[in-house]
Amino acid sequence: MADTFEHISVLLNECIDNLNIVSDGIYVDGTMGGAGHSSHIAEKLSVKGLLIAIDQDEAAIKAGTDILSPFGDRVKIIRSNYSFMKEIIAGEGIEGVDGILLDLGVSSYQLDTPERGFSYRDEDALLDMRMDNRMEKTARDIINDYPEEELRRIIRCYGEDRYAAAIARNIVKAREEKPVNTAGELVDLIKKSYPAKELRKPGHPAKKTFQAIRIELNSELKVLEENLKDMVELLNDGGRICVITFHSLEDKIVKNIFRECESPCTCPPDFPVCVCGKKSLGRVITRKPILPTEEEKSINKRSHSAKLRVFERKLQ
Fold first, then answer.
1. Is 312 helix (H, G, I), strand (E, B) or coil?
2. Are 54 and 227 in contact (CB under 8 A)?
3. In angstroms, rounded to a whole number, what is the distance separating the alpha carbons of residues 135 and 290?
4. Do 241 and 303 reside in the same domain of the chain?
């Protein structure tokens, strides 16, 4: 078990640089985690500045409270999902913020703590995968209760696994005998669904399915898609939002929403003037995502698939 919330912040310098932090500004870290990004933001703030650090994970709240305590009133920690950021900011009596950071996906601590049930490497761990332990539903409920066609859809869409149909079929067949409760049981069913030649290739065959179940349980893509534009609209003039993604599904959502925020006009291309009335919210800073350096990738294996996209708010 991981005793402390250890987590190496991905693309740390790139995020801090792109936030353009001003000492008396107001910033929001929507995914505080181990407070790596948060502590570096807080370091740049004066007593007039404020960082609101949000996380839904109980362990992250405990770790973040300890790590960020030296900054006193410059930091306010709130246990919630970043989907409620708009309400949280309004509740603090704040009209706009100068920067927002999202570091999406699962943390190293969550993966390294067997009882959290996120990892396919802990064979005896119960399938849990809740990012917020106040949730009643767990990964076991998805595995044992969802219809075969829904399991197939989730694994195909969220895991992008070409063997989704076979995996779903084998899960349903197995659970007719007894519930599928542990990571090891699910891994065995996934391996059974793969052709032998595929199992000999690099990479763990269960990675995609575990990702898919986790995304479904925690509504990760839905939360991102439904709230990212609202977060852009929370920014003050010149404020920036930095979003770190770890797989293509997240990155595509961020890229498309940032593009729509920059160019929202829906008028036909041959119209001489815009008549739809939709105004740009600002500009995309990263035409191509910022990637980790080779040095960072050698130090932090979690950074390999990371991509950073940045948007800057410009008021009309």
1. strand
2. no
3. 34
4. yes
**Inside any domain, residue 4:** no
Lookup: tokens for 3? 């005793």
Buried b (16+ CB within 10 A) or exposed e, 124-140: ebbbbbbbeeeeeebbb
* 208 shares its domain with 280: no
- Of the candidates 242, 231, 316, 244, the one whose C-alpha atom is nearest the C-alpha of residue 280 is 316
Question: Is the overall model pTM greater than 0.70, yes or no?
Answer: yes
Count of C-beta atoms within a 10 Å radius of residue 93:
6
Helices (runs of H) and strands (runs of E) counted in the chain: 14, 7
The residues, ordered by sequence, that sit 6+ positions from 127 with a Cβ below 8 Å of its Cβ are 117, 138, 139, 140, 143, 180, 181, 182, 183, 186, 213
Q: Are residues 203 and 250 in the same domain?
A: no
Distance CA 83, CA 91 (A): 14
Average pLDDT, the chain: 95
C-alpha separations of 231 from 29, 98, 101, 120 in Å: 11, 11, 10, 33
The full DSSP string for 46-79 is: -TT-EEEEEE--HHHHHHHHHHHGGGGGGEEEEE
133 contacts 58 by C-beta, under 8 angstroms? yes
Q: Taking a C-beta distance cutoff of 8 angstroms, is the pair 24, 44 a contact?
A: no
Looking at the predicted structure, is the pLDDT value of residue 208 above 70? yes
What domain range is 181 assigned to?
116-218
CA proximity to 283, closest of 250, 308, 309: 309
Are 117 and 141 within 8 A, CB to CB? no
Instruction: Provide the sign of the torsion angle of the four alpha carbons 197, 124, 152, 105, taken in this order.
Output: negative
pLDDT-based confidence at 2, cuts 50/70/90? very low
Distance CA 243, CA 37 (A): 12
75 has pLDDT over 60? yes
* Domain co-membership, 48 together with 130: no
Pairing of strands 75-79, 97-103: unpaired
Torsion of CA 12, 15, 16, 21, to 10 degrees: -160
Residue 20 and residue 153 in one domain: no
